[in-house]
Amino acid sequence: MIVVMKKDATPRQIEDVAARLRHFGFDIHLSAGVERTVIGAIGDKKPAVLENIEAMPGVERIVPILHPFKLAGREFKPEPTVVQVGDVRVGSDEFVVMAGPCAVESEEQVVETARQVKAAGARILRGGAYKPRTSPYSFQGLAEEGLKLLRLAREETGLPIVTEVLSPKDVELVAEYADILQIGARNMQNFSLLREVAVTRKPVLLKRGLANTVEEWLMAAEYILSGGNYQVMLCERGIRTFETATRNTLDLNAVPVVKELSHLPIIVDPSHGTGKRQYVPAMSRAACAAGADGLIIEVHPRPEEALSDGPQSLTPAQFSQLMQELAAVAAAVGRRMASPAPVKW
Amino acid sequence: MIVVMKKDATPRQIEDVAARLRHFGFDIHLSAGVERTVIGAIGDKKPAVLENIEAMPGVERIVPILHPFKLAGREFKPEPTVVQVGDVRVGSDEFVVMAGPCAVESEEQVVETARQVKAAGARILRGGAYKPRTSPYSFQGLAEEGLKLLRLAREETGLPIVTEVLSPKDVELVAEYADILQIGARNMQNFSLLREVAVTRKPVLLKRGLANTVEEWLMAAEYILSGGNYQVMLCERGIRTFETATRNTLDLNAVPVVKELSHLPIIVDPSHGTGKRQYVPAMSRAACAAGADGLIIEVHPRPEEALSDGPQSLTPAQFSQLMQELAAVAAAVGRRMASPAPVKW
Amino acid sequence: MIVVMKKDATPRQIEDVAARLRHFGFDIHLSAGVERTVIGAIGDKKPAVLENIEAMPGVERIVPILHPFKLAGREFKPEPTVVQVGDVRVGSDEFVVMAGPCAVESEEQVVETARQVKAAGARILRGGAYKPRTSPYSFQGLAEEGLKLLRLAREETGLPIVTEVLSPKDVELVAEYADILQIGARNMQNFSLLREVAVTRKPVLLKRGLANTVEEWLMAAEYILSGGNYQVMLCERGIRTFETATRNTLDLNAVPVVKELSHLPIIVDPSHGTGKRQYVPAMSRAACAAGADGLIIEVHPRPEEALSDGPQSLTPAQFSQLMQELAAVAAAVGRRMASPAPVKW
Amino acid sequence: MIVVMKKDATPRQIEDVAARLRHFGFDIHLSAGVERTVIGAIGDKKPAVLENIEAMPGVERIVPILHPFKLAGREFKPEPTVVQVGDVRVGSDEFVVMAGPCAVESEEQVVETARQVKAAGARILRGGAYKPRTSPYSFQGLAEEGLKLLRLAREETGLPIVTEVLSPKDVELVAEYADILQIGARNMQNFSLLREVAVTRKPVLLKRGLANTVEEWLMAAEYILSGGNYQVMLCERGIRTFETATRNTLDLNAVPVVKELSHLPIIVDPSHGTGKRQYVPAMSRAACAAGADGLIIEVHPRPEEALSDGPQSLTPAQFSQLMQELAAVAAAVGRRMASPAPVKW
User: Fold this and answer.
1) How far away is chain B from the Cα of A174, in angstroms, using its nearest Cα?
2) Does D253 touch chain B if contact means CB atoms closer than 8 Å?
3) Which helix (H) or strand (E) holds B294?
4) What is the pLDDT of residue A343?
5) Count of alpha carbons within 13 Å of C284, Cβ hemisphere only?
6) CB-CB contact of B306 with B313 (8 Å)
7) Do C32 and C121 have their domain in common?
8) pLDDT for residue C343
9) Contact B322/D322 with Cβ under 8 angstroms?
């Protein structure tokens, strides 16, 4: 850590800061520049201890040198993490597509969609049983009934299930049904929920918050990792900006940034990222070309009847067409896609 | 609601949309313009039903005419809501200042601070026992031990307590100690937590999310109100923008916007809003002049030793000075401030 | 246009608005809803006339139905525009790469770079002679001397030149040397400059402003098009958001959005868009997969000695490697890339 | 400046960076930490020289210690700058209100408005003769004819005039008529325009760009100051964020931030900052309480007939009411407001 003192800091203030740092066990490097004195603190301490040096008299600001995350960082673990879900290996050379409806609505809807996305090459089924809705008057999901329908769709198709959990008190129940626990964007910094999913040791899909930096996202992953659950996948799903042509701004820059800073796999959600189905194919191909490890895409047999997020859902036919385009792009960047497996009817 | 059809929408598509709207019980107004057909849906339906009209073939976009909130809106309840906490009436002609440390750290710290802020004119004591921290390695609060210390400070000073609750499972416990339950910015859309605090019927201080619009904020309040708890205070605490000179961008525009759209009181948090103590006095005065109903300010006897948010905490002396400045501004805009009450020692 | 009246609008206010709209030559559709009266104005008028209806008593807001741009829109011209620059056709099935140094620094630097990027397959040479710099103390470019060096590089390699023009008074001079006039992000709404480049009838590369929506960007293009110059290429170069891991947030969503709304070609600048060379290859591949018509990339023989933007410049070797990756992605999405042409030595 | 080396930087790379810094005339402080080597460069050099150190092999990032501005900074000039315009002293203890129509439309409109705002206590008349409009089809201003009408209004009322200049080629002409040259938000980084207004030695009102940090704004001021013109006033007019309830997000935090970093006066524009007249009074009072040196407010005798920005213009009666509220707030924060002067009829 570097402490930049104010121009008019007194020798006494400089010495007080140095003494405090030494007290915490740091070695001190003091550089008296022409306009500022800068104090370097050298040692292997947790940044949290130091935060309030900035509140000491005479201090202008502090500059951290190291990233605040440890377990999530590439320096801690240089080789990529592969998360195994059934026979699917997320983070390997396979480009993995997860697909399914936004919300589970009925047996027919979820089983039909599961068969169709599997036929098109999807490897994991998505579907929400607990829905975080902006309005208390909107459809809030089928809850455990929805989980049962997802389990049925898994039995019918063999596809593992990813589904969202909203509250610490539901974690145990959702973990009984789900293969992957999804943490939604609005809960990225719901720290009690993060601690709870860590306990399950189940794979977690951690969505990026709408207004969170990559660094904060990795710190959220750190909560899960430091709780002993190393099966974490990150999911970029769009950030909030001034642009209104898309519902959110899908930030594909996050793909190479995460790959540089972290060993965790990264999945991209172009459905929420753009909010409009006509932009999903282009952004899906782009995510693959940028080096993402997979996609999570909303597919609904009849989007105009969907109880949630219809405008951003692909039809099964559109999804099937996209999967063919993706196969070409994946090959161009050296990634493998599973051949569409025959569906049990 | 208005449905704008695409330029090349077919008569059949237009009729399908109209039929769907009629099926939902709406009256239809059809305007065939030069370049677009526009369908007006007239009736008193919940917007959620209509959302997926946008996914129908031939639809370009839908334009809601009404705000999505009901109970939180001024049209529902024109007169301002006053939230009563002990003898403090938030939303009345009194300009109410809440103050105290970011985190409860020790008996001495919290009782000392409570006495000092009361002496300076604060009417409610703030202090965190459960702390949402970006890093799992940072101080996470004293939990129930912290709540007990807050209760002690209340006994010593008579000041009601506002403190944050982070998880649905803690709501019952926190509600036993607190006079006001605070929902933090990161939990503004933690809908299970919102439903849980509604059940308590305790006054709630609902902070605005870092990336949430005023409309989404009022929808979060709607969760609490529709759960039967009408004692909701809003709290503006800064939004996330590109500017880095401040930790967040305190959005004082939200004050007149909320006053126009809603009957709920609005409190401003200049400490988190700016993140730097030197900007707190200016923004506090500005919030008062803009018409806010009160402030929530971080005060710590020794900010440089604070376990959390030291750089944005005022010292008791700075707070006392600020309270005098605020008294002048409040008077200029026709608001009353309580005279500093004598403290029991 | 739709005019939404306030809940308490009087019949007189409604009639006044209707009368004003009729006066402007519109047909009126009046829908008296349960909670609001909505007035539809039908006719083929320019939106500017109507703007201030919003200021009339009783009006809550106005909702435009049509996009404000005309000549830049796909409804005006459904087929894609191809901009011809020498034998390069931007917007055709060819994926066009422009490359070169941020700033022209010396004959050796610009000619050496031109040869190297041509050898790797670039089709157009970029280089700045006039540099918009945040600081008045930074290198401001070689001005006309820089333009002469660019001309020399064109003579040596045959590559057409794209270079920025900063001020209306320089347009004539820059147009004598340049094949494409670049309007920088900071000048996207410098309307006198836009009008001036329209007069030249030269191809224009119009960069998106850091905080401008796609709609505003197309309105800036409209200034050039309505001035009689139809040779406009758009260039996405990153927008400003809260994220600091990248210098800007390259918004690839703009690619499919522009393709939907406009017929103009779109080029992506991953160098400014990310600000860090290590992210340029991933975002270049992604831009191609998203359907962009080309790229503009900074290449410098010795980035650490560059007078401007060294950290985001690729070395010629890195650029050459990237061009091979791009060839594979372009093929996967059905685009052609020119074979690297032999350089004249 | 601090150079942070990568974890795996080689001794040779570290030595190369150190050698380069020494070559530029810096003293070097080398701190070999546990995880990173950090190099401090000490000396009084312009930051621009150092920028590309970041592009050297083995460098992770550079951290500037000093602000990039000099002449605009409080360290260079601790006492506040007062800009004298006629008998008005902006930056003194007087709280100065500038008011008038967005655009000059006719003799009657501008003279009538001038008289009314003067009667209410305004000290400077605003009005645009050259209008930067998003659409090429919108009213672009009366140009020199508008300047003549402003001069007429000054003759009638004695109020000095502030008006915008859009292009370097118009600076000389506008400077003949105007008392203060306004640089609009879209031109904050139009560096040729900044250099041109510096030459005039006329007072300049420099608006903050929609997506510019305070630091970049002060660097824009530095262009004017370093050109020899010290009469610079800053004007906060709202930044672009995700919030849509207001047209822009007026950032009052900028007031205390600018007061800390700079000696230049700061004016607030609540009309453009909010875009809606109903929010102008609250934000005007807030700006005054935050410590701004003045306001610039749009007033139009008949906003619903305004050719530009009607929805954000106050009527003369609303303005007059606001001026009385402001007088009370100004007094509360120790600022003086001129008594409304009698108008010549």
Assistant:
1) 15
2) yes
3) strand B294-298
4) 46
5) 32
6) yes
7) no
8) 46
9) no
pLDDT of residue D165: 97
Q: Who among B31, B65, B242 is closest to C33 (CB)?
A: B65
Report whether C253 contacts C271 (CB < 8 A). no
User: Is residue C218 located within the same domain as residue C104?
Assistant: yes
- With respect to residue C337, please indicate whether it lies within any of the assigned structural domains: no
Residue D235 is which amino acid? C
- Judge whether A35 is closer than 8 Å to chain D, CB to CB: yes
| Residue in B134, B137, B211 nearest the CB of A240 | B211
C-beta atoms of B52 and A132 within 8 A: no
Q: Please indicate if any CB of chain D lies within 8 Å of the CB of A36.
A: yes
pTM (predicted TM-score): 0.95
- Residue numbers of the domain that contains A239: 83-332
**Distance in Å, alpha carbon of D105 to nearest chain A alpha carbon:** 32
Structure tokens at D60: 């992770």
Collect the ranges in chain D with pLDDT lower than 70.
Answer: 45-49, 340-345
Q: Are B305 and A56 in contact (CB under 8 A)?
A: no
Which D residues in the span 178-197 are in contact with C, Cβ-Cβ below 8 Å?
A: 186-187, 189-193
Say if residue B36 is in the same domain as residue B100: no
pLDDT at position C285: 98
The ipTM value here is 0.94
CA distance B243 to D243: 15
Q: Note whether A110 and A193 are same-domain residues.
A: yes
Residues A242, C283: C-beta atoms closer than 8 Å: no
CATH number, domain of B210, equals 3.20.20.70
Instruction: Give how many domains chain D has, as a whole number.
Output: 2
Q: Is residue A339 a contact partner of residue A121, using CB atoms and an 8 Å limit?
A: yes
> Do residues C69 and C222 make contact, with C-beta atoms less than 8 angstroms apart?
yes
Domain membership flag for residue D191 = yes
The answer as to whether C207 is a domain residue is yes
- Would you give the distance in Å from CA D32 to the centre of its chain? 43
Shared domain check, A324 and A259: yes
Structure tokens at A168: 């610490």
Task: Considering only the beta carbons, identify the residue of D215, D283, D285 that sits closest to B253.
Answer: D283
> Is residue B339 in a domain?
no
β-pairing, C37-42 vs C2-5, is: antiparallel
The beta-carbon neighbor of B38 closest among C35, C36, C65 is: C65
Q: With contacts defined as CB-CB under 8 Å, which chain B residues touch A308?
A: 51
Task: Compute the average pLDDT of residues B231-251.
Answer: 97
pLDDT tens digits for C184-216?
A: 999 999 999 999 999 999 999 999 999 999 999
For position C10, which CATH number holds?
A: 3.30.70.1140
Helix axes A316-332, A280-290, angle to 10 degrees: 20
Contact at 8 Å (CB) between A101 and A299? Answer: yes
Same domain, C284 and C149: yes
Q: State the Cα–Cα distance between residues D280 and A334, nearest whole angstrom.
A: 57
Q: What is the mean pLDDT of each run of 10 residues along chain A (345 residues)?
A: 91 94 88 87 69 88 89 96 97 98 95 97 97 89 96 98 96 98 97 97 97 97 97 98 96 98 98 96 98 97 86 95 98 89 47
Measuring CA to CA, which residue among B115, B133, B127 is closest to residue B179?
B127
Rounded CA separation C190/C183 (Å): 9
Partners of residue A112 on adjacent β-strands:
none
Query: How close are the terminal C-alpha atoms of chain D, in Å?
Result: 61
Q: Report the largest interatomic distance among the alpha carbons of chain C, rounded to a whole angstrom.
A: 80
| Judgement on whether residues C282 and C149 belong to the same structural domain of the protein | yes
Residue reference for tokens 């401008």: C212
Residues D20 and D160 in one domain: no
Return d(Cα B236, Cα B207) in angstroms, integer: 6
